[in-house]
Inverse folding.
């Protein structure tokens, strides 16, 4: 059998020669990569993510390409190498436009006091200034009447003006179709409307230069400055709302959570909240709902709101009134100890009656000036353990106190003595049973009672 390997090798070599005969890629030839272009016709392909072989760093400017002469300080990378080359020569340039006197300048400046006048500026016709330093102030086209030089002409004579639109006041360059509308009683932007505001639901507060656009009550806002006097931006609803004390017609005009009471925005507790049920009366001073009104139109403490036999404390809760100084459980015994015994009876009865039930006020204490000093926890403890006169107590009351006090000085078990009842107080101190955490009887100011 004849071997064919040499013939196959020759065919491969021939194919390789055919590929190598293709024309090589050169700068400016984009036949091998369609994404490469020479848009500025300077003979160099533009460098981009789609044309990695391009070398022109700015394919929109025919004066910028590799090999071009670099001009220092002109803000351009003329030769596509390491950015703009800074000028090392001196340049006297008073207005900072890089034109002036010296080799380091971009060129001479015909007015070195005005940065808007130099050879690179665009000429504005008939403005009395040679903007581009070509030696003349170009006249405006014939069909453009622009007396104030703002680029807008008057209706009927403005087809050749630089800017499109009718100038409604050709004596003031600040009034034209491109101007921003201000609160000043003038149609600044020539749209036929005076003092319109760009914000939604906003209007000018007046026509003086100190006036401003403000968002109406209920309108959308992002910050307080957008709202008028007496209002602020309520971030909970992103609306301008009236603050406390401002007039209103309904609660939707006031800050969230406030009420419109009597035509005025208020955060008063009783205006905002409705009390019902067992706590059916509102106390603005205490900012909570209470059982009874401590003062009514009949000049009586609100006993009519309480069950029979109970009175209304100054804090608005119903309880049995107990006048400690009038008690005399042990005849002819010293007054302070008798007062302590009366307190013991109140605490023991509260424990026996309310234990195992819901939170409830047992008694409101009246401690008159006849009591010489505050009734303290230590005095109660001493009287209970050291003075055997407590034998007058019934066994049930004795057992109740023992449950509450425990054994030994200040070894409290089920009583929380928060504050000492003070002499000459009017139902200011209360005794109540509480099941919030554990079974306890509390002795504290009535203001701290929470049913």
């Amino acid at each position: 059998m004849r071997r064919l390997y040499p013939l196959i090798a020759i065919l491969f070599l021939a194919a390789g020669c055919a590929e190598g005969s293709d024309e090589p890629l050169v700068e400016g030839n984009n036949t091998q990569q369609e994404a490469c272009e020479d848009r500025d016709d300077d003979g160099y392909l533009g460098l981009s993510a789609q044309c990695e072989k391009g070398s022109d760093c700015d394919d929109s400017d025919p004066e910028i390409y590799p090999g071009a002469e670099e001009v220092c300080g002109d803000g351009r990378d003329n030769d596509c190498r390491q950015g703009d080359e800074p000028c090392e020569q001196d340049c006297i340039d008073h207005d900072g436009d890089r034109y002036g006197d010296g080799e380091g300048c971009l060129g001479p400046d015909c007015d070195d006091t005005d940065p808007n006048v130099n050879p690179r500026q665009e000429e504005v016709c008939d403005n009395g200034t040679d903007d581009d330093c070509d030696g003349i102030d170009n006249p405006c086209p014939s069909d453009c009447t622009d007396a104030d030089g703002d680029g807008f002409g008057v209706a009927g004579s403005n087809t050749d003006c630089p800017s499109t639109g009718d100038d409604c006041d050709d004596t003031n360059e600040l009034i034209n179709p491109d101007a921003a509308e201000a609160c000043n009683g003038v149609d600044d932007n020539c749209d036929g409307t005076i003092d319109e505001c760009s914000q939604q639901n906003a209007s000018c507060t007046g026509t003086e230069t100190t006036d401003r656009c403000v968002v109406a009550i209920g309108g959308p806002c992002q910050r307080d400055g957008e709202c008028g006097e007496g209002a602020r931006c309520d971030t909970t609803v992103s609306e301008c709302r009236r603050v406390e004390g401002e007039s209103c017609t309904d609660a939707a005009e006031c800050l969230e959570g406030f009420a419109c009471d009597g035509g005025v925005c208020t955060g008063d507790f009783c205006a905002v909240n409705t009390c019902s049920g067992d706590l059916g009366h509102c106390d603005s001073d205490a900012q909570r709902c209470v059982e009874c009104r401590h003062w009514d139109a009949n000049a009586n403490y609100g006993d009519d709101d309480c069950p029979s036999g109970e009175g209304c404390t100054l804090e608005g809760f119903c309880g049995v009134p107990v006048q400690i100084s009038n008690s005399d459980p042990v005849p002819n015994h010293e007054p302070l100890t008798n007062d302590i015994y009366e307190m013991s009876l109140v605490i023991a009865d509260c424990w026996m009656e309310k234990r195992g039930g819901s939170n409830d006020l047992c008694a409101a204490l009246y401690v008159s000036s006849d009591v010489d000093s505050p009734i303290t926890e230590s005095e109660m403890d001493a009287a209970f353990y050291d003075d055997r006169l407590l034998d007058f107590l019934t066994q049930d009351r004795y057992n109740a106190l023992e449950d509450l006090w425990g054994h030994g000085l200040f070894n409290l078990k089920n009583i929380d003595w928060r504050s000492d009842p003070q002499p000459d107080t009017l139902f200011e101190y209360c005794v109540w049973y509480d099941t919030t955490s554990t079974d306890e009887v509390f002795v504290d100011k009535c203001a701290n009672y929470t049913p």
Observations:
- Residues 369 and 424 are 4 Å apart (CA to CA).
- The two ends are 115 Å apart (CA to CA).
